[in-house]
């Protein structure tokens, strides 16, 4: 799976990407989130094959000049509901459309799996992510406090 925008290559995660993916995960989290353990930690990065790829999901990386600068994942919640996880773009490469390309690929994959609803969450402190998801047709469904962070839950009905 390959797309380009300024030579960005989007492809499925490979085991050789593990360290780069974990580094990108931590580097791209806003500092306001890094105050405690919570849903943003890297528990589901320990076995990406099991958590995502072997369970009606996907894990994509965006590669630019042989460096992983973006990533995003899709996992199964139920037969009809998929969950978008780990949308990250390296801070030096944000606002170039890379996250948009990755999200579009994940949504296309969700349709292939037969998901009719996608859900995701972000914190109230991560305003750019909130705006990104709203621009892409996700609507807020509810809020909850998780590990001291107010979390906003979104969903989108796929066509």
Protein described:
By secondary structure, the chain is of the alpha+beta class. The chain has a domain of 106 residues: Aminopeptidase, CATH 3.40.630.30. It is built from four helices and seven strands; from the N terminus they run E-H-H-E-E-E-H-E-H-E-E. A seven-stranded mixed beta sheet has the order 1-2-3-4-5-7-6. The protein is globular.
Helix content: 25-40%
Tally of helical runs: 4
Query: What is the string of helix and strand elements?
Result: EHHEEEHEHEE
Determine and state the CATH class of the domain at 9-114.
Answer: Alpha Beta
The CATH homology group name of the domain at 9-114: Gcn5-related N-acetyltransferase (GNAT)
The amount of beta strand, in percent, is 25-35%
By secondary-structure content and strand pairing, the structural class works out as alpha+beta
CATH architecture of the domain at 9-114: 3-Layer(aba) Sandwich
End-to-end Cα distance: 22 Å
Global mean pLDDT: 89
CA radius of gyration = 15 Å
List low-pLDDT spans.
none
Largest sheet: 7 strands, mixed
Shape: globular
